[in-house]
Amino acid sequence: MFKNILVPLDGSKDSFKALAYAKEMAQMFSATLFVTTIIDPSVAIPAGVPPVGGIVPVQVELDVREEAAHVIDEAKKELAGTNIQVKYTIVSGTVNDEIATNLPEKEEIDLIVLGKSGKSALEKLIVGSVTKYVVQHAEVPVLVTEAASE
Question: Can you give the residue ranges of the UspA domain (predicted)?
Fold first, then answer.
């Protein structure tokens, strides 16, 4: 039924709960997992750090990329020892568009699995709800996983 499953990770507990669901589904359907972390240049700059000449300071970009690589490494640990085919990517772009449309079109995704919420309540207020956007705009089925228990 599903051949290509997209799992966007932001490092939150909920995103890794989504990975656990996607792992089970990939095994059930012999599907390929597309595990990604998205770096959104418009929100990667911490408050109070002005871009220099419109360019994100180099150290900020390096820190964001290092965090993204760490998230991917954690996913690799979660999926180690399975026979699931996995493609790992770090993508730069607008989070909502990458998850809802760009990656599904590029990778022929037929299911998106994501957590109910992201890293923090503050980010949700500032950035808006990625989950809500994806559910409303994706042209493929979206599975929203329950919140991780604390």
Answer: 1-145
Percent of the chain with pLDDT over 90: 61
State if pTM tops 0.70: yes
**What mean pLDDT is reported for the chain?**
84
End-to-end CA distance of the chain: 33
Residue 38 belongs to a domain: yes
Sheet of 4-8, strands arranged across: 86-92, 32-39, 4-8, 111-115, 142-145
Task: List 32's β-bridge partners, or say none.
Answer: 4
Does 150 reside within a domain? no
Structure tokens of 129?
Answer: 């709800």
- Structural domain boundaries enclosing 13: 4-145
Interatomic CA distance for residues 65 and 62, integer angstroms:
5
Please tell me which residue, 60 or 51, carries the higher pLDDT value.
60
In a domain, 40, yes or no: yes
Which of 94, 95, 103, 110 has the alpha carbon at shortest distance from 142?
A: 110
